[in-house]
Amino acid sequence: MCNDGIKLHNVHNLYNPYIVKRFKSKKKTKNKEAKDEKYDEENEEKNEEEIPLGSKLLKIKVTSIRLDSLSKAAFGMSRSKIEEAFYASKFRINGNKVLKNPKK
């Protein structure tokens, strides 16, 4: 081990002899993670203030951001019922009817 926590490894190949340096320090990543957590907490507080009364904030994980998969997860309904409502033109985004199902 050399100074400053740097390990030197000699790797010899028949064709390419070279030296590999490995920097072993986790201080930077810990500080960065702490800053990210502070930033996330501040954003959550701001988002909570913007939610109107009588509404509910859901955090869901979906594999695709298609309208039918988001609606299924948000409303807790089956995909077939979501498709029936879609084809009956009951879905609107910003006041406009949705024309295609794979709308992202």
TrEMBL record:
<dbReference type="GO" id="GO:0003723">
    <property type="term" value="F:RNA binding"/>
</dbReference>
<dbReference type="InterPro" id="IPR057896">
    <property type="entry name" value="MTRES1_C"/>
</dbReference>
<dbReference type="GO" id="GO:1903108">
    <property type="term" value="P:regulation of mitochondrial transcription"/>
</dbReference>
<dbReference type="Pfam" id="PF25818">
    <property type="entry name" value="MTRES1_C"/>
</dbReference>
<feature type="compositionally biased region" description="Acidic residues">
    <location>
        <begin position="39"/>
        <end position="50"/>
    </location>
</feature>
<feature type="domain" description="Mitochondrial transcription rescue factor 1 C-terminal">
    <location>
        <begin position="60"/>
        <end position="103"/>
    </location>
</feature>
<dbReference type="GO" id="GO:0005739">
    <property type="term" value="C:mitochondrion"/>
</dbReference>
<feature type="region of interest" description="Disordered">
    <location>
        <begin position="26"/>
        <end position="50"/>
    </location>
</feature>
<protein>
    <submittedName>
        <fullName>Uncharacterized protein C6orf203 homolog isoform X2</fullName>
    </submittedName>
</protein>
